[in-house]
Specification:
By secondary structure, the protein is mainly alpha-helical. The chain is about 50% helix and about 10% strand.
Protein backbone atom coordinates (compact mmCIF):
# COMPACT_ATOMS: atom_id res chain seq x y z
CA UNK A 1 0.00 0.00 0.00
CA UNK A 2 1.08 3.55 -0.64
CA UNK A 3 0.45 6.40 1.74
CA UNK A 4 -0.90 9.59 0.21
CA UNK A 5 -0.05 11.62 3.31
CA UNK A 6 3.49 12.46 2.24
CA UNK A 7 4.36 16.08 2.97
CA UNK A 8 6.46 16.19 -0.20
CA UNK A 9 3.90 14.42 -2.38
CA UNK A 10 6.17 11.42 -2.96
CA UNK A 11 4.96 7.85 -2.59
CA UNK A 12 5.78 6.33 0.77
CA UNK A 13 5.47 2.79 2.08
CA UNK A 14 2.74 2.55 4.73
CA UNK A 15 4.09 1.52 8.16
CA UNK A 16 2.70 -1.35 10.19
CA UNK A 17 1.15 -0.22 13.48
CA UNK A 18 3.32 -2.61 15.47
CA UNK A 19 6.78 -3.90 14.67
CA UNK A 20 6.66 -7.25 12.90
CA UNK A 21 7.69 -10.19 15.06
CA UNK A 22 10.04 -12.96 14.03
CA UNK A 23 11.01 -16.32 15.45
CA UNK A 24 14.44 -17.82 14.90
CA UNK A 25 15.62 -21.40 14.73
CA UNK A 26 19.09 -22.68 14.08
CA UNK A 27 20.61 -26.05 13.29
CA UNK A 28 24.12 -24.87 14.12
CA UNK A 29 25.10 -23.95 10.58
CA UNK A 30 22.11 -22.00 9.27
CA UNK A 31 19.56 -19.68 10.81
CA UNK A 32 15.93 -19.69 9.73
CA UNK A 33 13.85 -16.59 10.40
CA UNK A 34 10.08 -16.93 10.34
CA UNK A 35 8.06 -13.74 10.18
CA UNK A 36 4.39 -13.30 11.05
CA UNK A 37 3.89 -11.39 7.80
CA UNK A 38 6.79 -10.93 5.41
CA UNK A 39 5.02 -7.94 3.85
CA UNK A 40 5.18 -6.19 7.26
CA UNK A 41 8.91 -6.88 7.38
CA UNK A 42 9.25 -5.30 3.94
CA UNK A 43 7.30 -2.26 5.12
CA UNK A 44 9.48 -1.95 8.21
CA UNK A 45 12.53 -1.93 5.95
CA UNK A 46 11.01 0.76 3.71
CA UNK A 47 10.96 -1.44 0.65
CA UNK A 48 8.82 -3.61 -1.57
CA UNK A 49 11.79 -5.83 -2.40
CA UNK A 50 11.96 -8.88 -0.14
CA UNK A 51 15.63 -9.50 -1.04
CA UNK A 52 16.51 -6.10 0.46
CA UNK A 53 14.57 -7.02 3.61
CA UNK A 54 16.61 -10.23 3.89
CA UNK A 55 19.81 -8.18 3.57
CA UNK A 56 18.74 -5.81 6.38
CA UNK A 57 17.76 -8.77 8.58
CA UNK A 58 21.14 -10.45 8.04
CA UNK A 59 22.92 -7.19 8.92
CA UNK A 60 20.89 -6.82 12.12
CA UNK A 61 21.65 -10.44 13.02
CA UNK A 62 25.38 -9.89 12.41
CA UNK A 63 25.38 -6.88 14.73
CA UNK A 64 23.43 -8.67 17.45
CA UNK A 65 25.01 -12.05 17.02
CA UNK A 66 28.62 -12.06 15.86
CA UNK A 67 29.11 -15.74 16.76
CA UNK A 68 27.95 -18.22 14.13
CA UNK A 69 28.04 -21.10 16.62
CA UNK A 70 25.33 -19.79 18.97
CA UNK A 71 21.62 -19.56 18.17
CA UNK A 72 20.10 -16.20 17.27
CA UNK A 73 18.10 -14.58 20.06
CA UNK A 74 14.70 -13.82 18.50
CA UNK A 75 13.84 -11.38 21.29
CA UNK A 76 16.90 -9.25 20.48
CA UNK A 77 16.13 -9.42 16.77
CA UNK A 78 12.55 -8.29 17.46
CA UNK A 79 13.93 -5.39 19.52
CA UNK A 80 16.17 -4.42 16.58
CA UNK A 81 13.17 -4.52 14.26
CA UNK A 82 11.25 -2.32 16.71
CA UNK A 83 14.13 0.19 16.56
CA UNK A 84 14.10 0.24 12.75
CA UNK A 85 10.29 0.39 12.65
CA UNK A 86 10.35 3.28 15.14
CA UNK A 87 12.47 5.32 12.71
CA UNK A 88 9.90 4.46 10.03
CA UNK A 89 12.18 4.31 7.00
CA UNK A 90 10.39 5.46 3.86
CA UNK A 91 12.83 3.88 1.42
CA UNK A 92 15.89 1.65 1.26
CA UNK A 93 18.37 4.43 2.04
CA UNK A 94 16.49 5.37 5.20
CA UNK A 95 16.38 1.68 6.18
CA UNK A 96 20.16 1.47 5.73
CA UNK A 97 20.63 4.54 7.94
CA UNK A 98 18.23 3.09 10.53
CA UNK A 99 20.23 -0.16 10.54
CA UNK A 100 23.48 1.79 10.93
CA UNK A 101 21.97 3.77 13.79
CA UNK A 102 21.01 0.53 15.50
CA UNK A 103 24.49 -0.92 14.96
CA UNK A 104 26.11 2.22 16.37
CA UNK A 105 23.81 2.08 19.39
CA UNK A 106 24.68 -1.56 20.10
CA UNK A 107 28.40 -0.85 19.79
CA UNK A 108 28.13 2.25 22.02
CA UNK A 109 26.46 0.20 24.74
CA UNK A 110 28.98 -2.66 24.45
CA UNK A 111 31.88 -0.20 24.66
CA UNK A 112 30.28 1.57 27.63
CA UNK A 113 29.90 -1.77 29.42
CA UNK A 114 33.56 -2.59 28.73
CA UNK A 115 34.64 0.86 29.95
CA UNK A 116 32.75 0.35 33.20
CA UNK A 117 34.16 -3.10 33.85
CA UNK A 118 37.70 -2.92 32.45
CA UNK A 119 40.98 -2.31 34.16
CA UNK A 120 42.18 1.29 34.43
CA UNK A 121 44.58 1.15 31.47
CA UNK A 122 41.84 -0.05 29.10
CA UNK A 123 39.06 2.23 30.38
CA UNK A 124 40.33 5.23 28.37
CA UNK A 125 40.32 3.25 25.14
CA UNK A 126 36.71 2.13 25.68
CA UNK A 127 35.62 5.66 26.66
CA UNK A 128 37.19 6.93 23.42
CA UNK A 129 35.24 4.30 21.47
CA UNK A 130 32.02 5.45 23.14
CA UNK A 131 32.77 9.09 22.25
CA UNK A 132 33.61 8.32 18.62
CA UNK A 133 30.61 6.04 18.15
CA UNK A 134 28.32 8.61 19.78
CA UNK A 135 29.51 11.26 17.33
CA UNK A 136 28.94 8.83 14.45
CA UNK A 137 25.44 8.10 15.78
CA UNK A 138 24.63 11.82 15.93
CA UNK A 139 26.02 12.36 12.42
CA UNK A 140 23.93 9.48 11.04
CA UNK A 141 20.79 10.82 12.73
CA UNK A 142 21.50 14.24 11.23
CA UNK A 143 22.09 12.68 7.80
CA UNK A 144 18.73 10.92 8.05
CA UNK A 145 17.02 14.18 8.99
CA UNK A 146 18.67 16.08 6.12
CA UNK A 147 17.73 13.34 3.66
CA UNK A 148 14.12 13.42 4.83
CA UNK A 149 13.96 17.22 4.64
CA UNK A 150 15.79 17.24 1.29
CA UNK A 151 18.32 19.68 2.75
CA UNK A 152 15.72 22.28 3.74
CA UNK A 153 15.86 23.87 7.16
CA UNK A 154 12.85 25.09 9.03
CA UNK A 155 13.17 27.90 11.52
CA UNK A 156 10.27 28.88 13.75
CA UNK A 157 10.35 32.31 15.35
CA UNK A 158 8.41 32.25 18.58
CA UNK A 159 8.59 35.92 19.52
CA UNK A 160 9.15 39.10 17.55
CA UNK A 161 9.46 42.52 19.15
CA UNK A 162 8.64 45.51 16.97
CA UNK A 163 9.45 48.92 18.41
CA UNK A 164 8.21 52.37 17.40
CA UNK A 165 9.05 53.05 13.77
CA UNK A 166 9.86 49.38 13.09
CA UNK A 167 8.25 47.04 10.57
CA UNK A 168 7.63 43.30 10.69
CA UNK A 169 6.25 40.63 8.42
CA UNK A 170 3.82 38.24 10.08
CA UNK A 171 3.22 34.92 8.34
CA UNK A 172 5.12 32.22 6.53
CA UNK A 173 8.20 33.39 4.62
CA UNK A 174 9.90 31.06 2.15
CA UNK A 175 13.49 31.85 1.19
CA UNK A 176 15.05 29.55 -1.36
CA UNK A 177 18.78 29.16 -1.85
CA UNK A 178 20.06 31.60 -4.44
CA UNK A 179 17.14 33.99 -4.06
CA UNK A 180 17.55 37.47 -2.72
CA UNK A 181 15.79 38.33 0.44
Amino acid sequence: MISADSPTGEELVERPERSPRVSASSDGSTCRIEAELSSDLDKTCGTKEHDYTKLILSQLINVLHPSATEPVNASNLNAALAFVNGIQPRDELEAALATQLFAAHVLIMKSARKAASSEAELTGMHVNHVAKLSRAFAAQAEALQKYRNKGRQRITVERVSVYDGGQAVVGQVDVRPGSEG
